[in-house]
Amino acid sequence: MVLRPARTSDVQAIKSLVAPLAERRILISKESVTYFEAIQEFWIAEVDGETVGCGALHVMWEDLAEIRTLATADSWRGKGVGRAIVEKLLTNGRTLGVNRVFCLTFEVDFFIRNGFTVMADQSPVDPDVYSELLRSADEGIAEFLDLARVKPNTLGNTRMICQL
């Protein structure tokens, strides 16, 4: 398996990985433009040239980032693809100087095995950071802060966090 930064030519493969998970309401489907705008955040897992997984690390603040759009092809689940992508994203977080990485997930056991814990405090940022984050148009940040403009926890998943 090869892990590499995503390229613009990977957007269709990312959408194909996300589509079955979106149908099962595990992930939220996004428009192509959203993936293109965030392509530099994504990593791709390939086996023999086939895209078998993807994931993104979105920096939200000086010390906080989110793992987004973690998806593995059904035929590759349980074979270490997701773990490898999460490890790469956490390494990138450390390189960027991020101290905490959170995710919104249904795969609680998977993320526990990868060093995450369920968040007791749904918004672990101080009031000054909170007021700055309110200025962001990013819906992921709005969901993290549990703002009224988004449906609270739209998929019913669990907020988890990892201290780096």
TrEMBL record:
Pfam families in the record: Acetyltransf_1
In its keyword annotation, does this UniProt entry include Acyltransferase?
yes
Which residues does the UniProt record annotate as the domain N-acetyltransferase?
A: 1-138
What InterPro entries does UniProt report for this protein, alphabetically?
A: Acyl_CoA_acyltransferase, GNAT_dom, NSI-like
Presence of the UniProt keyword Acyltransferase in the record: yes
Q: Which GO terms describe its cellular component?
A: cytoplasm
One MF term in GO for this entry?
A: N-acetyltransferase activity
Alphabetical UniProt keywords: Acyltransferase, Transferase
The protein, known as: N-acetylglutamate synthase
Lineage of the source organism? Bacteria, Bacillati, Actinomycetota, Actinomycetes, Micrococcales
